[in-house]
Hints:
elongated; alpha/beta; 9 helices
Amino acid sequence: MEGEAVIFQPVLNIFLLVLLCVPVAALAVIALTKAKGRDKALWVMRLVMLLACFFMFLRPGIPGGVTQTLATDTDIVLVVDTTASIVAEDWNGDEPRLDGVRADVQTIVDEYPGARFALITFDASADLRMPLTTDTTSLVSSLDVLQPEVTSQSRGSSIGIANQLLADTLANAAASSPDRSRMVFYFGDGEQTVTSAPEPFDGSENFTDAGAVLGYGTTEGGPMQLTTGSLDGSGSGEYIEYQGSNALSVIDEGNLEAIAAELGIEYQHRTADTELELPEAPSTTTDYAESGSVGNVTELYWIAALVVVALLGVELARASMLVARLRLLRAPSASTRTRTRTRGRREKNPTDGGAA
């Protein structure tokens, strides 16, 4: 098998590395030319150490084989309820429903590797929080810091208020990438808190190939903490009250099933003790494509790191020896201390010598 050429992946721009290392190397060369005897060997060692560091910063490596990764050529739009009821405490006992939403989003991200994701949130209005992207780290981070609307500003909300924004997002995705499939996942409790009827989602059905409406909450309902919009994401510790007792948010599965029918996808009630059932991505868009191949690189910087460690060990050993010698020079010997004491006594008694 033919040998592979060494490749470099510098930790910094190559010109910046040269700018940092060349002046130090020049000083080492000047010191080397002026050094004599053992000092020459020391400066040669230091110059080698500098070159080893430079080599390490270049991150050399040898390309290895390739591994194919599953690529899902699909656009997925997540529609998340951020009304006050999404933090009602009836998920997994007394945890907020939003915890369940976050866990399910992570499951969806893991299930469809390589897909593009968009995030829409809705309360009194609908907002596109994140346009279509493959940056799932940013998506999950956005969900981690996502907070419901501030309770004092809540004026009621409609579970269908995101209908037009969802339709526009899907239509734009279809126009820009007609060969990609599109999936929709709706996360909510179906609780309509305005007097008007929910806006229909039927305008998005033609652009939706698969997905699911996921319902959160219980028929018994859960209390909701007052939300203040604090940056740390914690609740106020006080609960929304209605007629002298804690107000309860109750899931409305009828509304959620209606949304699922309008989008042409399935409805699924979510609980912490059941596994999320996800539809398969359209088979024509899931494949082991060449674009999904990832090259493996065998790193070689560790060789230079070993050289640096060995040379630093020599320098430390030499420094330790020099410190020991300095201590010996500073500490007077026993004979020197005896002569010093004798001389001191003679200076105090100058007649002692004549008496002898």
